[in-house]
Amino acid sequence: MSVLFRGCDAVVTSADAPVLRDVDLLTEGNRIAAIGADLAAPEGARVIEAAGLVLYPGLINTHDHFFQSFVRNRAELDWTRLSLIEWLDTIYPIFARLDEDCFYHSSVVTMAELIKHGCTTSFDHQYAFPDHAGPRLVDRQIEAAGLLGMRFVAGRGGNTLPKSQGSTIPDALCETTDGFIADCARLIDTYHQPDPFAMVQVAVAPCQPVNCWRETFEQSVALARSTGVRLHTHAGEGESPVIAARHGMRTIDYLEEIGFAGEDTWLAHCWELTRGELGQLAASGTGVAHCPEPVYLVGAEVTDIPAMEALGLRIGLGADGAASNDNSNLMHCLHSGYMLQCLVARDRADPVPRPAAFLRYATEGGADLLGRPELGRLAPGQAADLFAVDMRGLDFVGTRHDPVSLPAKVGLGAPVDLTMIDGRVVWANGEFPGLDERDLAHAAETAMTRALGA
C-alpha cells in the first residue's frame, strides 16, 4: 500500500541535511518512494493531509530493558535512599518473581510508550531469566513486537557468574555459559532476519563483564562472528576497578583482549571511561549507547559526550530500563541528554555538541550501531519509518524555524501525532489502530499484580 503525506509543513530528512519545506512524502510498501512538491497519489493510495505537520526519521533506541517497566515508581527502590549494593539486593529478588507473561506484557507496555513518542526501532537487552519463567522469554518479546508493529532487535542477555563468586546475581537468575550460548544460537536460527528492512533481528548480549565468566564473553564473540550478528554489553559504569582486581586490567582492555570490540559491537553507558579508553573505542570502531536519564540516578558523573564526539566515536541513544529511568520515552532523552551536557559544559575540554547532534544520535547514530543503513533518515529507498508532529499548537510558537534542533533544545513533551513503521501507521490520533489500549493496559496490570502484588 502507498501513503501520500500531502502538503507537509516540513520534512527533516536527517539531522545534518537542510530541512525541506512545503513538500509531499510518498511511501510505497515499506519504503519511501519520493519526497518533493506536488507528488501524484498512486491509485488506491491513502492520502494524509499533512498541513502543519513536520515529518522526522523514526527514533532508534539502542539500549533498554523492557521487563523493568514492571518495577518503575516503586517506593522501595528509591535511589536517593539506597546505596548501589542495597538497591541491587532489593531489586534482583523482584526480578526473580516475574513469570513468562510478565515479560510479554512488560514488553507491550515499553514498546507502546516508545512508539507513542516517535521510536520506530528498538533494541532490548533482556538479561533476566528466572528459573520458573521458562526459556521462551525473548520469544514472547518478539510476539509483543509483532502485535504493535515495532521494528525489533532482541538482545539475548544473560548472567553466568554466581553471587558466591563475586557477582550481584542471585542463583535464581544465574545461567550457565553453555545454556546461555545455546539459547542465543536457537534465537538466531529461529528469528534473526539478516536482510535489509528486517523487522526482527537478534544480538548476542551477555549482561556485563562483572557478572559473567570470561568464557561467556569468549563464546559470545565466537557465536556472533560465526553467525554475523552483533555484540552488546554494559561497560564503563563503575565496574572497572572490580575487573582490574580480578583480571589485572580495566574493562576496555579486558574486552579488547577477548575480542569483544569492533564495528559489530556497541557498549551501553561508558560514563566512567578515561579519554584514553574512549580513544581505544574510537580506534576499534566500537560504538556507545548513551543513556542520559540514568545519569541522574546512578552515574557518578555526566557522560563525556563532547569527548566522544571529538574523538569520532559512534554514538547512539538509549532510554535504558525503567528501573533506572522510570520511563521508556526516548524522545525525552534527546532533551535531557542535551541539557545535561549544557550543565557541565564549563568543566569539559570539548564543546557541547549542537542540539541537532542529539537527533542524529537517536536516528542515524542508532542505525549505525545496529548495522542498519536503511534506517535513520528520510530519503527515497530508505525504510518508511517516521513520526509526525503537528506544529500548529501554542507549544510550538517561536520554534518552527528550526525543527531539527527542536527535540533536543525545546523538547517534545506530548506523544507525537503519528508514527509509521515499515510503511504502516501504528500510532495516530492518540490510538494504536486495531488495538484497544485499555485492554492492553488491563492485561499488563493483571500480569504484574499476579507476580508482584499491588
From TrEMBL:
Keywords from the named record: Hydrolase
TM annotation in the entry: none
Domain Amidohydrolase-related: 55-426
InterPro entries documented for this protein: Amidohydro-rel (IPR006680), Metal-dep_hydrolase_composite (IPR011059), Metal_Hydrolase (IPR032466), MTA/SAH_deaminase (IPR050287)
Stored Gene3D superfamilies: Metal-dependent hydrolases, Urease, subunit C, domain 1
Recorded GO MF terms: hydrolase activity, acting on carbon-nitrogen (but not peptide) bonds
Domain of life: Bacteria
Protein family per UniProt: Belongs to the metallo-dependent hydrolases superfamily. ATZ/TRZ family.
Protein name, entry field: Amidohydrolase
Classification lineage: Bacteria, Pseudomonadati, Pseudomonadota, Alphaproteobacteria, Rhodobacterales
